[in-house]
Input
Amino acid sequence: MSKKEVAKKSAEVEGQVDENKEADAKAKAKPKGLLRVGGIGGVAVIAAAVYFGINPAAKFGLQMALESTFGTETEIEAVNVSWSPFGLTIENLQQTDPDNLNRNLFQFNQAEVQVRPLDYLMGNTVIDSLKVVELQFDGARAEPGVRIVKDDQSADTSQGTDSDTTENDQQEGMSFPSSKELLAKADLQTEIKAKNFQQVWKTQSSELKSVYKDLPDKGSVKSYEQQWQEIEDTEISSLDDLKVLKEKVAKLKAEINADRLKIKTAKAKYKTSKAEIDQAYNELKDAPGQDWESIKKTLPIDDPNTLAISQLLFGDKITSYLEQGMGFYTTAKPYLDNYLKNKKAEEAEPEVIVGENIVFPLNDPLPTWLIVDAEISLTLSGKSWLVTASEITSESYVRNIPGEYVMSHVAKQGGSINIEGTFFAAQDAKFTTDGKWNMSELAVNNYSIAGDSDLSLELEHGKLLGSGTFEYENELNSEHLLAFSETIFSGNGTGDFAEILLDSLSSVDQFNINMNVSGKLKSPDLAVDSDLDNKVNSAFRAAVKKEFKKVESETKAELSQKVEQNLTEKAPELQKLRDFGKDLDEWESTLKNKAEDKIDALIDNKKQQFEDKIKKEAEDKIKDKLEDKVKDKLKGFKCCE
Amino acid sequence: MFTLIAKLLNVLNSDSEPKHLALAIVLAMLAGFNSIMSVFGVFILLLMIVLRANLTVFIAMLAVFSGLKLLFITFISDFGGYLLQLPSLVSTWTELYQATWFRFSELYNSAVMGQLVSSIILIVPIYALSYWLIVKYRLAMKHFVERFKIVQSLKASKFYQIYLSVQSA
Output
């Protein structure tokens, strides 16, 4: 065996030994299990990271979302995520008001939200439970908030608005309106009719002047007289004379007829113009009376009983509550609209679908957003309220379940307010709600009713009972009854109204108010009726009558003055107009004397005279001839010789 | 591509247990049929991390099964539609449809339903077949294949160099 062969053989043996070792190692190695320990560890680490990191992540996400929505700083103390049921607990949230960085748009101590994450991922925000503790709007901030997104609106704007409001309030004093104020507010017929009279006068007088120009003048009449005289004086001695006379007469007749036609036209025009001017004149004369009647209708001048003192006193307060409600709505509306717009845009995105979607009926369909149950404690106008609600959504039609809400307030000094109702948001975006409220033995202390430069009035003490119903379907329709008892009023005032009011209220210890708020939400009609009116009005009656008599005489005098001005200016011209009428009458009477039948009669007379003359001459001639003939015949005749 | 095939051969020739390789193939089939970007895809990825399935085999076979799915998608979709509209199952589907997870996973879609049911039906056959093939390959095919001239020429090629580098890595 050569060395090479030995080496080869030993190598084979070594290799065989290695293979045997590997085989032994394989045989000894434990079969690997199905689970990968490292993998499980990795998943556990990821799960732990998610579990412990989700709270700060949720806080960061929520903060960013709110800051992006409102454009101002959001402060959140902590956010805790609960896994079953899945939800968030938010501690001490403060959202800075974009319009005023010193105040919060809203804030709360704690909010617990239970959401359905899978439904959220599918585009339905479903909150099974919402609990908000100590929700507050427009609260003061300890430090001014930071603006995240630059906004043109600033705190100055709101301050400006406040000062404007104050100014407006100051303008509305509780005093009688002056005659000038009444005339300024009224849509005066006197002024309208005065303008109309001026216009009619201008038009008609201009038209009459043009007619007047065409009328014959006094020289024409003299000429007719002369021609007439000539015709009368004309002696007809021949047929030629008669022919000439006839021509003269025809000429005179034509001239007179033409002038008569002009006068006839002028008279017709005068008649219509005079009628129109008379009408405008009479309307102007009557206008002050009509204006006064109209002013009286808008103000309780004749009947002071109709003065709604309660409306004057409580109208502004009620309106301010309605405005507060509308304020919440208008603040939330842009954000809601934006949310719904984004939702619609998301829904509108086309999906690439492979296969076919086979949809089955859902027992519990879900709207775009829904709060199944909510419980919110909030502070409004210094009063603590507890609001519980269910099925809050803008798409009630999806589940066909109306939303329900209950708002209750229990006062520390006793008494409570309870408001409950239902609402339904239909598919055509029609929103309807109806409900009722009641108030029991609520103590009212130091309640400011009016506070301006003319009158500051406070309900120092009183007890309040109330109830009401409301419904909204396109328009609001609500009726409310408030019964005050054990009332004590106090206040200060300047002016007749204020003094009378304060005197009268000092003797009032109970009164009821009936309110009816109806119409469009943005501009509701408010009707307030109260037995307080009757109680206070008896004191008002005398003062009001006296004051309004004065106003009446002043107003009437001012209206009369407006009429007189117009009529006095036109007096000379009106006289001229009347004179013009007389002139026309004279013309007519003059020309009547030269009427055609008279001219014809004159001609006939002249003709008759001429014929008589000719006849007489002929008879005389025949008579002479006959006498001559008889004389000739009798020349040789002798009788009885 | 060459690297992936080389890795695949390396795994087949390695001491990895056939059951782990077969499991990777099954998971690849599930992920490939149901799409990796679906609820089931995420679930299968999680299984991949937790179970001792071979990642190389999974990736390689995921491409294969994704291609097969595209090839048979019409048939799969029709099958899913047939199941969803089967009168005897409508009440079951209606009940399941009430559950949010059912709607979220889009199982009401005929293609999604078809993919899921097909892949579940194929779990056992694919596992068994893969296991059997891997074992057979190792016992007989490995030496048999290596005797082919084409294999020997392959060994001399760049591809074989990659294979070796993968094996040594």
